[in-house]
TrEMBL record:
Function of the protein: The glycine cleavage system catalyzes the degradation of glycine. The H protein shuttles the methylamine group of glycine from the P protein to the T protein.
Transmembrane segments: none
Sorted UniProt keywords: Lipoyl
Description of how the protein assembles with itself and partners: The glycine cleavage system is composed of four proteins: P, T, L and H.
PROSITE patterns per UniProt: BIOTINYL_LIPOYL, LIPOYL
Modification sites for N6-lipoyllysine: 63
Names of required cofactors: (R)-lipoate
Name of the featured protein: Glycine cleavage system H protein
A Pfam family this chain is assigned to: GCV_H
SUPFAM superfamilies membership: Single hybrid motif
Cofactor note (record): Binds 1 lipoyl cofactor covalently.
Family the UniProt entry places it in: Belongs to the GcvH family.
Length: 127
């Protein structure tokens, strides 16, 4: 189980786990629950340059289409092929097997993201 308190969060409901200068990015279980059953994900290819707060992908569910925002600027180094093949992983394991992309970033930039308490306040304690 991922330690949710060790993650950083965005107001757009992405989570970030840092390991050195590589950020693993996914959407929170709160966002996955609001979307409903995820049926398709469109992720940026490895090598793609991302700009923080810009749309970099799409998550489609049976209820709606949501945009994936880059939480930090950097270069995509890996995408989760398992989620592309089985988008339901976003619903069943948002903080584990449902991760979306890995991005090489300036790790100090993550300090500007929300901590768990701030994210829970944003979502009314539902996170």
């Amino acid at each position: 189980m991922t330690d949710l308190n060790s993650l950083r969060y965005t107001a757009e409901h992405e989570w970030v786990a840092l390991e050195g200068d590589v950020a693993t990015v996914g959407i929170t279980d709160y966002a996955a629950d609001k979307l409903g059953d995820v049926v398709y994900v469109d992720l940026p290819a490895a090598g793609t340059a991302l700009t923080a707060d810009q749309v970099c992908g799409e998550i489609e569910s049976t209820k709606s289409v949501g945009e994936l925002y880059a939480p930090l600027s950097g270069e995509v180094v890996e995408l989760n092929d398992a989620v592309v093949d089985d988008p339901s992983l976003v619903n069943s394991d948002a903080f584990g097997a449902g991760w979306l992309i890995k991005v090489r970033v300036d790790a100090s930039a993550a300090e500007a993201l929300l901590d768990r308490a701030a994210y829970e306040a944003l979502t009314g304690g539902e996170a």
